[in-house]
Specification:
252 residues, alpha/beta, TIM Barrel, two-stranded antiparallel sheet, 10 helices, 10 strands
Length: 252
């Protein structure tokens, strides 16, 4: 299992390379082709990433392209809406690790959390956790905070994840497009108030991953100051290098 540290980082002294070292570079958009995925993976081979988080079918591709690097290989479970039965999520997890994943990010059953059906939520998370621990892998649990606006539910999920000893609680998929009062759909992603709540109500052995809308070094430093120890982003190059440099663009 990869070594994890949930020790708070100092945004005043952290280097760009150290920021990228806690980043999961996301390659999850449904219209990314195999050729684009390969190009992205080749581009980020040179970055000191924690992991890439790639579409489930492409885990083997990532394992092949990233061979020889220390970059972890992550994928998603129950993505993006979390409605799969626990047994299906467990099977997805087993396949992911069989294909070479070292980390998985699972989406909770959002409707069950909003219903306060904590027995189902526990069974759901535990089904994936049991496989991840069996395979010595990292488990991150996605709350999808754009939909899960109930603070009581978020606090209870933090408590459940702490009891089940998952590795991280995580804000968003990046695809949680919630309907706004004006009728438009918007995915806000990681919000400061949610990150503060998740850090406060999660045990010290559980890290907090900010995902959704982290696009610049300033964004990354802001969430690190709130206690975040893992970041999901498509903007690794922009975080590592200021705009207008020669670094490859790795965002779609």
């Amino acid at each position: 299992m990869p070594k994890l540290s949930h020790t708070p980082l100092n945004p005043e002294t952290i280097t760009p390379e150290q920021i990228v070292a806690i980043c999961d570079h996301a390659l999850l958009h449904p219209n990314l082709t195999d050729a684009q995925l390969r190009t992205e993976l080749l581009a980020v081979r040179v970055f000191p990433l924690a992991s890439v988080c790639i579409k489930p079918y492409a885990v083997r591709l990532a394992k092949d392209v990233l061979s020889g690097t220390s970059i972890g290989i992550g994928t998603v479970i129950g993505f993006p809406h979390g409605s799969h039965p626990p047994a299906v999520k467990a099977l997805e997890t087993r396949i992911a690790f069989d294909d070479g994943a070292t980390e998985v990010d699972m989406v909770i059953n959002i409707g069950k959390a909003l219903s306060h059906d904590w027995t189902h939520c526990r069974d759901d998370i535990q089904a994936v956790r049991d496989v991840a621990k069996e395979r010595n892998g990292v488990l991150k649990v996605i709350f999808e905070t754009d939909f899960l606006t109930d603070d009581i539910a978020k606090i209870k999920l933090c408590e459940l994840c702490s009891e089940l000893r998952v590795d991280y609680v995580k804000t968003s998929t990046g695809f949680g497009y919630a309907k706004q009062p004006d009728g438009h759909f918007l995915a806000r992603g990681a919000q400061d108030a949610d990150l503060v709540l998740m850090r406060k109500h999660s045990a010290p052995h559980v890290g907090v991953k900010a995902s959704g809308g982290i696009r610049t070094r300033a964004d990354a430093l802001r969430v690190i100051a709130l206690g975040v120890t893992r970041i999901g982003t498509t903007s690794t190059a922009a975080i590592l290098n200021p705009p207008n440099t020669s670094a490859p663009s790795t965002s779609y």
